[in-house]
TrEMBL record:
It is a multi-pass membrane protein. It comes from Polynucleobacter hirudinilacicola. InterPro entries: LptG, LptG/LptF_permease. This is LPS export ABC transporter permease LptG. It comes from the Bacteria. The keyword Membrane applies. The chain crosses the membrane at residues 12-35, 68-85, 301-320, 327-348, 360-381. NCBIfam families: LptG_lptG. It holds the Pfam family LptF_LptG.
Amino acid sequence: MKLLFPFTYERYLAKQIYAAFGFILFALVALFLFFDILSELGSVQGGYTLPLALLHVLLKAPSRISEIIPIAGLIGSIYVFAMLASQSEFTILRIAGLDVKRGLITLTKISLPLVALTLIMSEWVGPYTEAKSDQIRMKALGSAYSSQFRTGVWVKDRLRNEDGSGPVRSGVRYVNVGKVDKDNAIHNIRMYEFDDVYRLLSIRSATSGQFDETGVWVLNNVTETRFKETKQSDPLNPVFSSQIFTHPILTLESEVTPQILSVLLISPEKMSILSLGRFISHLRDNKQDAQRHSIAFWKKVVYPFTIFVMLALALPFAYLKVRAGSVGIKVFGGIMLGMSFQLFNSLFSNVGLLGSWPAFMTALTPPLVYLLLAIIGLRWVSKS
């Protein structure tokens, strides 16, 4: 603590802000989990008992924490600064030499542990507990992953040699998976393979499949129809022949892994930075649109550092005079300010997606706008 906060006033501010932050974070998380439990009660049936539903909701708490940390930091710091102003403690700090620049440097130091906490919750703890939570629910209900499409999940893949191995060759494969079990087994698989000019080469269907330790898919009960063009004198009137093969077991090497399938079944906002990076590379390798996932990736990168922006937004409240309003009104204003940031951040992401704006700027613009508002507010209140 002393290494990060060498001055007495820095340690004092840090303790006050962390205490208020912890209390408000606990209250907000408890409130959101209460509503999650209420919405989950409708699914309690059979083997999915109330204790399992409570465990399912509690395991989602780390993801909730990572979402709420910036808002809790804003509300907690506004409360602390408003209390310091009402008791004239901040005025004493200003007389002792705490100017705006030193205040921002102190807030930067205070925000670093909160940034680390956000990264830990959003990148490691949150995804792990979220996956465990879904597994518990699916196992109790006996259900499988599903997608927003009635026909299952569709994914684009690159072709290899006819035996399913070797280097990538020209052409494309479209894979349709009906459902994915909790143990990464897939069911109701269909594959359509095309050459480089999009002529249909083959159609495969399999009842089930499993990704083995060697990195290939083992498909069961496969029916394969291959199409081949017969040489004709008239190139404008091609004739195709077809052959049907059946395979009890067929191994197939593919870039579509269980991780990619699981990514397709969850929203980009709930994925980790590493998972988003791998999936964006997959989309770009297959020449698919990665705009939505790119925006989510940069938002995940920038999001932890919005904590400093929230603390900077709270600092002007320390300069407000007591007669300008009560502590409760200031805290309410902080809540509204935090909600406006979340709304503006979500709205700007959707606008950037529709306008195909650069993903980095789409993710960075909302925090920059609110940081500019914080600087303007500091300049205004410091001169008053």
